[in-house]
Recover the amino acids of this structure.
């Protein structure tokens, strides 16, 4: 996790990296990290004018993280 977080610090606009970090957080049950990363992916996707399918996937990721948290 720390290596992925360091990579994020170096390239915070990289949606692919954020998706990988989100997946890692969910696998190791760092739910708050997963939620924050999912929110960040949504914000960046909006700034980069991602297509609607990408937004749907990112909202689904956020919902999955909240579900894992119990919210």
């Amino acid at each position: 996790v720390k290596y992925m977080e360091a990579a994020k610090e170096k390239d915070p606009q990289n949606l692919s990296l954020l998706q990988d970090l989100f997946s890692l957080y969910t696998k190791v049950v760092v739910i708050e990290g997963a939620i924050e990363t999912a929110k960040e992916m949504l914000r960046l996707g909006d700034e980069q004018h991602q297509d609607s399918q990408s937004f749907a996937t990112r909202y689904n990721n956020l919902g999955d993280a909240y579900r894992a948290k119990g919210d």
User: Anything to note?
Assistant: The first helix runs from residue 2 to 10. Residues 65 and 71 are 9 Å apart (CA to CA). The chain has a mean pLDDT of 91. Helices lie at 2-10, 15-27, 31-47, 52-69.
